[in-house]
Amino acid sequence: MVRIMKFFYSFSLVLILLFSSTTTISAATAPAPAPSSAPTDIIRILKKAGGFTTLIRLLTTTQVSTQMNAQLLNSNNGITLFAPNDNAFQSLKPGFLNSLNDQQKNELIQFHVLPSFVAITNFDTLSNPVRTQAGDDPERMALNITSSGNQVNLTTGIVNATLGGSVYSDHQLAVYQVDKVLLPKDFFLPKRPPPPAPSPEEKPKDSKKKSDADGPASSADASSANKRGVMLLLLTFFLVAVSSL
């Protein structure tokens, strides 16, 4: 009996050890969860490509890079960026960038951004003028894109540029190098004047109209008062005449 109990005790101990080792091995060999992919960062992409120092600085100071990264996280439309390299910025008129105020710098960068993903083979499907994130004013913000074979041309009415190739594409963000900075016509057209303020001469006209409208009533009141005065005067003469009899 004692031998049987020892046997069962030993057998139970072996099963416990075997189960524990199996669990440990399974836990050790279980695959680790795959790390989540990092969100798209336009600045990191341009730094990795190299040659876009000025564009990176403008994207950062205008906070357009932050806006683009947020759009990529929260929208399914994607984004297309036309990226002028440092040579393109250096070909601008000296002092041009420094002459722009903060709003114009923001407008300049937004003019290089399309609010949707466009594959390099799909530029011929766009309708001109193409809408950018700077606005869709056909007179001041027009961007026309034409493609012929492997060549894609862009014109703003001020600048004619050529697509130099793909810098980055992940089916949500497309970055294409362009050989010139895209300058909108808005920078070179006279600013639209504000709507004219009401002329001071118009106010007397309104007052005159009001006087004209009130005129007949005022004349009638004056006539009625004159009649009452005459009646009182006649009544006074009558009473004086009667009292003297």
From TrEMBL:
Cellular component, GO annotation: plasma membrane; side of membrane
Q: Where is the composition biased (Basic and acidic residues)?
A: 200-213
Limits of the FAS1 domain = 39-182
Indicate how the chain sits in the lipid bilayer.
Answer: Lipid-anchor; GPI-anchor
**Matching PROSITE patterns:** FAS1 (PS50213)
Biased segments, Low complexity type: 214-224
Q: Which UniProt keywords apply?
A: Cell membrane, Glycoprotein, GPI-anchor, Lipoprotein, Membrane, Proteoglycan, Signal
**Residues annotated as signal peptide:** 1-27
What subcellular locations does the record give? Cell membrane
SUPFAM superfamilies annotated for this entry? FAS1 domain (SSF82153)
One GO BP annotation is: plant-type secondary cell wall biogenesis
Q: State whether keyword ATP-binding applies.
A: no
- Functional description taken from the UniProt entry: May be a cell surface adhesion protein.
Q: What is this protein called?
A: FAS1 domain-containing protein
What is the originating organism of this protein? Arachis hypogaea (Peanut)
